[in-house]
Design brief:
The chain is an alpha/beta fold. It is built from 13 helices and 18 strands.
């Protein structure tokens, strides 16, 4: 590991302060570590790093290869790579013989925790409360509360920074009709993010309902199915989507998660980006083929002898309203969109695999609000370097990670672009090129290139398809 100079005192400005230590800011911190002239500090309110602990179900894997770790796609020689983690744990040869391209979620969590426990400059138990721009000092001010392991405030503090990076991540999303049920604990209605913490209680329920057709919903359904006796499963799996659809995982389809596509998407007009995003859900919200196959195999196994498992899988259904029946059951009022029919479902436990939403930044950035430039939907504008577009009077930069899907596309939350985005930020921040990045990353050419003359013998440069059509 590269030695770094002692960090500056808290009252001295740092070159970069990061808020949030999830995989993306952890990636940035790891790639910033060898840049010894860069003074950085990262803060997170949690007592330690832990990656989606409620979904570390046995056997579940990442949807990206192990090369999509925190650093490798920007710096394969980094000491903070997944392979170096395995080497430090004396697991490199077992991994070699396991021939695993997609690692388990528990492996990825252990790897990130290894980095977080050994990388300097990370401050857990520090909750960022407010961010301001100080025009006199031409610095950002970050107020924070130091929190003990019981969640109690211990002390208040402030740090100063020339630049910021926000990586506060996402939060579990609960649809409005189900929020009152989650807030009343007499019947287990939990988000899949907390699944393992409540698994035993869920399995004790006579009837279980899983809501949500993405990867998390599929993994929870499969885990529950395997744990229930044949013929007495009593599980409903409901989804708003038209089908329990596979995730797009073809090699050319995956090129939507390349820097090439990110640059193309960012250059589109705002109206085109808004229109394009909703139709791309299957690129990142479908179910991987192995999980779908495992579910079907388990269901088929339970038909031996002529019986059918006591499960119901129904797509195309939304929950209109929900309420409690007595003190031990939940009643879901369902509507099938295509049939335009309605019914009620009484259940004893509900797992909401309803996804995540970007954490709102309005409270944290209230002090910067006068400086933030917004689009037609009042969302922050974000430039090609992953920076908030701020008033010209602000000298520093505020970079964002996984808060720019509306400007950079479906790759924003993808782990495979973590190292590239971190390197992009560091290259821009330092004003040099510590991490040379590839100029081309996809075989697909997204959009028409109207800046280069592409000629054939005897024909003029083509900048539009229309002249070509008219010449035929």
């Amino acid at each position: 590991m590269t030695d770094r100079p002692a960090p500056a005192p808290a009252e001295q400005p740092r070159d970069l302060v990061g808020i949030g230590i999830g995989p993306f800011n952890l990636s940035l911190a790891a790639l910033a570590h060898p840049l010894t002239d860069l003074d950085t500090a990262f803060y997170d309110q949690r007592p330690a790093f832990h990656w989606h602990p409620g979904l570390l179900i046995d056997g579940t894997t990442l949807q990206v290869p192990f090369l999509a770790d925190l650093v490798t796609l920007a710096d394969p020689a980094s000491p903070w790579s997944f392979l170096n983690h395995l080497r430090a744990q004396d697991r490199l040869f077992p991994f070699y013989f396991a021939e695993r391209f997609h690692i388990t979620r528990t492996d990825y969590d252990a790897y990130c925790r290894w980095v977080a426990e050994n990388l300097p400059g990370l401050h857990f138990g520090h909750q960022a409360d407010a961010v301001r721009w100080n025009p006199e000092r031409r610095l950002f001010e970050v107020d924070f509360t130091q929190i003990d392991r019981d969640g109690e405030a211990e002390a208040l503090g402030r740090t100063y920074a020339r630049n910021l990076v926000l990586g506060v991540g996402t939060a579990p999303y609960v649809p409005e009709p189900l929020k009152p049920l989650v807030e009343t604990p007499t019947v287990p209605v939990i988000h899949s993010a907390d699944y393992l913490d409540h698994r035993a209680r869920i399995l004790d329920a006579e009837h279980i309902t899983v809501i949500g057709s993405g990867q998390s919903g599929a993994e929870v359904f499969l885990d529950l199915l395997r744990a229930r006796p044949a013929g007495a499963e009593r599980i409903h799996w409901l989804a708003r989507t038209e089908a329990f659809a596979p995730m797009e995982y073809s090699k050319l389809g995956l090129e939507h998660f390349t820097p090439d596509y990110t640059r193309y998407f960012h250059a589109l007009p705002e109206s085109a980006r808004n229109e394009l995003l909703p139709g791309q859900w299957q690129l990142h919200k479908g179910i991987d083929a192995d999980t779908m196959a495992a579910i079907h195999d388990e269901l088929y196994r339970r038909t031996h002898g002529g019986a059918w498992p006591d499960v119901v899988l129904t797509p195309g259904v939304s929950v209109r309203t929900a309420g409690r029946v007595a003190a031990t059951k939940v009643e879901l009022h369902l509507e099938h969109t295509r049939q335009q029919t309605r019914t009620r479902l009484t259940t004893d436990a509900v797992v909401l695999a309803t996804g995540y939403r970007e954490r709102p930044l309005d409270r944290l950035l209230a002090g910067l609000d006068p400086y933030i430039r917004r689009d037609s939907r009042t969302r922050p504008r974000i430039d090609a370097h992953h920076r908030l577009v701020l008033d010209e009077s602000v000298a520093g930069s505020v970079y964002v990670q996984n808060a720019e899907r509306h400007t950079h596309g479906v790759g924003a939350p993808d782990l495979g672009l973590a190292a590239w985005r971190s390197a992009t930020i560091l290259n821009h921040l330092t004003g040099r090129n510590p991490y040379p990045l590839p100029s081309r990353t996809a075989f697909t050419t997204f959009g028409l290139d109207t800046t280069k003359a592409r000629t054939r013998a005897g024909t003029p440069p083509v900048t539009s398809l229309v002249p070509l059509i008219e010449q035929r």
